[in-house]
Structures are given as structure tokens and as C-alpha cells.
Amino acid sequence: MSTIILKEISTRAPKELDKQETKEKTAAILQELNELQNLMYAESKHSLLVILQGMDASGKDGLIRDVFGAVNPQGVRVDSFKVPTEKELSHDFLWRIHQVAPAKGMIEVFNRSHYEDILITRVHKWCDDTTAHKRMRAINDFERLLEQHNDTHVLKFYLHISQKEQHQRLSERLEDPAKQWKYNANDFKESELWDSYMKMYEEAFDKCNEVPWVIVPSDQNWYKEFLIAGKIRDTLVGLKMQYPGMKK
């Protein structure tokens, strides 16, 4: 895998791409996803784990709503990972993650994930490099376990926004009453650590790449949704699933 350098990757859609045509394509893909999710739930042989990582205001919540809102909620579960509780801290760092790994037939979406334990923890020096590298090896083992022993297909997306776009979205949270509940005064302070976060993300991409990362240009939500919905659709189609026959 070639080294990923985020500053060399555009955060925007290609200029020649038509927004309305792309949104229409996304709508068609979402219809396919609805049927594919139903098929996976019925067949109950595979599961899908979708990992969403990105800086604050990269659009994880909106993506979950706009892509996974199109499928039957019976077959989709979303979990978010914030600061570990005291109980969670008394276990290994993957303990809280493994408990919500998807069962066969299910789509599980991680809004942030086990990668926080080698990202924010390193940026703030809560985790030393030696511990972080041990965790990276454990993450590779964990993802391999899911894929090889439970037919779980893992997709890892990094929502790639520019710092300029981030600041604009954070400012909107102050001005828009519908978004003010999301405002956190600490978000701008975290943004000051942007370069450090980029460095830690790039090392995570390099060291935890047995399941490859998809870098998704995310300054424009319509393009982000198109790329991620398409990747999920293609993954499910590739499973060549079939509805089971009637039970005898």
C-alpha cells in the first residue's frame, strides 16, 4: 500500500462532476442498498462493519442519516464511541468495541471507533508510542478475526475535509439554532492541533491497512454520500447473496 499523505489528496469533488446527476445516482444506489440489506438480513451468512472516522464536523452524523436512513432499521445498528467510562477503562481498549461487533445478517456502523485509542490519545500524549504500536497490532488482529471467523466485511472510511471547511461548519453551529446543540467550545481548540491529527491519522492508515482505508473527499456532502453509498453497494453485491428457501 502506498503511503497516504492527506494534504496531497483533494477534499472536493472533481470539477467536471455534475451535482444533480450525482445526487440522482446516489438515490438509485440507496434503493439498491435497501434491497441488499434485506437480502443480507434474510440470508444471515455475512455481516458488514462500516467504520467512520474524521475530524470534528466532517459529517459523520449526516452521512449516517442520509445513507443508512434508506434501509430497514431492523438490520442496521449505529454505535458511537466517546470518552471511555470507568468500567470500560478497567478492561482492554477493544473490550467495548467487540461487544457491538455485528452479528450475521447485520450492518453495524461505528461513528468513531477503536481508532480513537491511537488518534486523540496520541495527540494529547495520553498514550505513548510504544503502547500505540501495540494497539495497532491488536487492531489488525481484531479486524482479521472479524473477517476470517465471522464473515464480517469491514469498510473503513476517513471523511477528508479541509480545515477551512471545518471552521465554516463549526461556525454554523453557533449561528444555526438547529445546529447549536452540536456546538462544543473545545472543537476550535482541537482544530488548533490539526497537523498533529493529520500525522496520527497517516500513521494509522500506514500501520492498520490489512483492511484498506478509503479516503473520502468530504467538503461536499453530496459527493461524500455518493462515494460511500457506492462502495457499500459494491461490497454487498460482491457477496453474491441469495434469499434462503422456505423452511421445512
Your description of this structure?
The protein has 248 residues and is α/β, with parallel strands linked by helices. It has one domain (41-236): P-loop containing nucleotide triphosphate hydrolases (Rossmann fold). The chain has ten helices and five strands; from the N terminus they run H-E-H-E-H-H-E-H-H-E-H-H-H-E-H. Helix 2 (60-68) packs across helix 10. The termini are far apart. The mean pLDDT is 96.
Percentage of residues in helical conformation: 40-55%
The whole-number mean of residue pLDDT values reads 96
Head-to-tail CA distance between termini: 48 Å
Percent of residues in beta strands: 5-15%
Q: Order of strands across the biggest sheet?
A: 2-3-1-4-5
Low-confidence stretches: none
**What characteristic shape results from the CA principal axes?**
globular
Helix-strand category: alpha/beta
Q: Which CATH C-level class is it?
A: Alpha Beta
- What CATH calls the topology is Rossmann fold
- Quaternary structure annotation: single chain
One letter per element, helices H and strands E, the order comes to: HEHEHHEHHEHHHEH
Helix and strand topology:
Elements lengths: L18 H25 L3 E8 L5 H9 L7 E5 L5 H4 L5 H4 L8 E5 L8 H4 L5 H22 L1 E9 L2 H13 L10 H6 L2 H14 L5 E5 L3 H17 L11
Parallel strand pairs: 1-3, 1-4, 2-3, 4-5
Helix pairs in contact: 1-10, 2-10
